[in-house]
């Protein structure tokens, strides 16, 4: 098992900001304390290479982002104050997702204790999302011919409008989103498959909908799945409007992970959003995703997908990759 993390996933955005920037460190600490993870299983994230970022994002946006010259309107859309630390954390989080994807191709599953920034478009950031880490990882793996087809299973409560738009004209990438119909963003993009739920949907309806929909995703025959395990469908989430329990969200994770394991499809988990009234609930939901990874990939006997020679070579050098 291997997960990616950096202490620099934290950037100071103000103590009263709705985005819980402390959750990344708290998830790591809880998983280590309880023994779900061991130190040697946590790899240090490295910043994603600029050439990989530019496979997705425009040069103009990235140049102004790095220089701190985004307009006031762009910063309002982003919803985060600019800082060098914010740029660094965004590059590190994208690097963590790409590293986890390389590991998954070789070993069946990889996880990033950040990522899932699905509101970032090619030319701008939105909704607390600076760079689209999953899109960057997919494009980098495609460029290196490690994969041809990919699927994004986005179970954050907010539609992944940036991801859907980036891949709108690419039939090789299947984008799937279950989200709140009346939640942000106001104007939805078009994913390959969108399921918009009414306010107040509970565990049973949500899980039935997920299980009924997944065969369409797997019919795409993806070489890898990126799973956005958002904590914000939780019933006590400040921005959620759905009514799932912590147990229901754990069951959701298990469904997705088990389906990929049984079908021998490598899967990458990323955290996406979570804004519970009690920060500890958000942390627990994210921890449950990693607990489910450990349980399912250690206890099931089916063989994992066989990696290509190149992906094996890459995975052997994971901690020191660029």
UniProtKB/TrEMBL annotation:
Domain Histone deacetylase: 17-282
Pfam families named in the record: Hist_deacetyl
Transmembrane portions of the chain: none
Protein's GO biological process: epigenetic regulation of gene expression
Entries under InterPro entries matching the protein: HDAC_classIV, HDACs, His_deacetylse_dom, His_deacetylse_dom_sf, Ureohydrolase_dom_sf
Keyword field: Hydrolase
CDD domains: HDAC_classIV
Keyword Hydrolase part of the UniProt annotation: yes
Keyword Hydrolase (UniProt): yes
Top-level lineage group: Bacteria
GO MF: histone deacetylase activity; hydrolase activity
Family membership noted in the UniProt record: Belongs to the histone deacetylase family.
Record PANTHER family: HISTONE DEACETYLASE 12 (PTHR10625:SF19), HISTONE DEACETYLASE HDAC1-RELATED (PTHR10625)
Protein name, as recorded: Deacetylase, histone deacetylase/acetoin utilization protein
Organism: Pyrinomonas methylaliphatogenes
């Amino acid at each position: 098992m291997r997960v990616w993390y950096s202490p620099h996933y934290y950037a100071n955005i103000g103590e009263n900001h709705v985005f819980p920037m402390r959750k990344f460190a708290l998830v790591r600490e809880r998983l280590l304390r309880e023994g779900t993870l061991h130190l040697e299983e946590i790899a240090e994230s490295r910043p994603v290479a600029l050439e990989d970022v530019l496979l997705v994002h425009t040069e103009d946006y990235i140049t102004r982002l790095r220089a701190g010259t985004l307009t006031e309107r762009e910063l309002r859309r982003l919803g985060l104050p600019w800082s060098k630390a914010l740029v660094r954390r965004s590059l590190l989080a994208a690097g963590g997702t790409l590293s986890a994807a390389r590991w998954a191709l070789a070993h069946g599953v990889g996880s990033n204790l950040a990522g899932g920034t699905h509101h970032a478009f090619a030319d701008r950031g939105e909704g607390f999302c600076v760079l689209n880490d999953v899109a960057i990882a997919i494009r980098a793996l495609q460029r290196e011919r490690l994969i041809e087809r990919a699927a994004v299973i986005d179970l954050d409560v907010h539609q992944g409008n940036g991801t859907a738009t980036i891949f709108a004209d690419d039939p090789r990438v299947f984008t799937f989103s279950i989200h709140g119909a009346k939640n942000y963003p106001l104007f939805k993009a078009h994913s390959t498959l969108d399921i918009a739920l009414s306010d107040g949907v509970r565990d049973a309806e949500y899980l039935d909908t997920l299980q009924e929909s997944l065969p369409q995703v797997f019919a795409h025959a993806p070489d890898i799945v990126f799973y956005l395990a958002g904590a914000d469908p939780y019933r006590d989430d400040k921005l959620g409007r759905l009514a799932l329990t912590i147990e229901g969200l754990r069951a959701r994770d298990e469904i997705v992970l088990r389906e990929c394991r049984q079908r021998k499809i490598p899967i990458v988990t990323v955290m996406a959003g979570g804004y519970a009234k009690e920060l500890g609930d958000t942390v627990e939901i994210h921890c449950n995703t990693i607990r489910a990874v450990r349980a399912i990939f250690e206890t099931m006997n089916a063989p994992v997908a066989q990696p290509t020679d190149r992906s094996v070579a890459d995975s052997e050098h994971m901690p020191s990759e660029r």
